[in-house]
Amino acid sequence: MKEILRDDVVGDVTICCTRRSRRISLSIKPSGEVRLSFPPYASRARALDFLHSRRDWILATKEKFAHRAIDGKSAAHITPEEIEQLRAAAKATLPHRVAELATRHNLKYGKVSIRASRSKWGSCSAVGNISLSLYLMILPEHLRDYVILHELAHTVHHNHSPRFHALVNSLTDGQEKALARELKEYSTR
After folding, report:
1. Higher local confidence (pLDDT), 47 or 79
2. Distance (Å, rounded) from C-alpha 18 to C-alpha 131?
3. Sheet strands (E) in the chain
4. Do 56 and 82 share a domain, yes or no?
5. Residue 33 domain-assigned?
């Protein structure tokens, strides 16, 4: 079961009753979308009580996402001129940083390209070419490095296997999970 509920305080909430849920849980995407999931053995009324008990947390989290900014603007509402400034900064910065990190960790890659991708921070092709989003420039430097190291790890493991994650974790001094969680707080949408 999936439905959209209009809550007077937090706005639209996607409600999902699914067998994959083990407990009642709330999630909020950086876009502000709120999702309430619960297992079939939990009643809808109990799930809604949980939603209502967490309104303050929902509002605070939505507010936090709304204030991720570039020069005081939400990343989703930057102007075309600001996008071009990001593009120029990305082209001047990111390829050099990829080279530095690859050399430091003895990793090989092909070409580096900069794109205006809003769907993902980066990607790595089967031949080791790395594509990075110009929106990486809205991130703190340590998260930019995390994304670059993630893509460089794909030049060794072209998947998200345990060996891939072990490599990323070693490249980030054991911080992969913490960095991945922190990165989820940012959005280009």
Report:
1. 47
2. 36
3. 2-7, 11-17, 25-28, 34-38, 69-70, 73-74, 112-115, 122-124, 130-133
4. no
5. yes
Confidence class for position 10, pLDDT limits 50, 70, 90: confident
- Give the residue-averaged pLDDT of 30-49: 88
pLDDT band for position 71 (50/70/90)? Answer: very low
Tokens of 105: 């960790």
Residues 48 and 104 in one domain: no
Angle at 84 between CA 109 and CA 119, to 5 degrees: 55
What is the rounded distance in angstroms from the CA atom of residue 136 to the CA atom of residue 94?
Answer: 9
Please choose, from the candidates 117, 120, 112, the residue with its C-alpha nearest in 3D space to the C-alpha of residue 155: 112
Q: What's the CATH code of the domain at 96?
A: 3.30.2010.10
71 backbone φψ class: left, alpha, beta (φ>0; ψ -120 to 50): left
Domain containing residue 54: 2-67
Asked whether residue 189 is domain-assigned, the answer is: no
pLDDT of the residue at 31: 63
Q: What would the two tokens of residue 121 be?
A: 């921070």
Three-state secondary structure call for residue 10: coil
Structure tokens at 140: 């703190």
Distance of CA 180 to the CA centre of its chain: 7
Name the amino acid, one letter, at 47: A
Is the pTM of the predicted complex or chain greater than 0.70? no
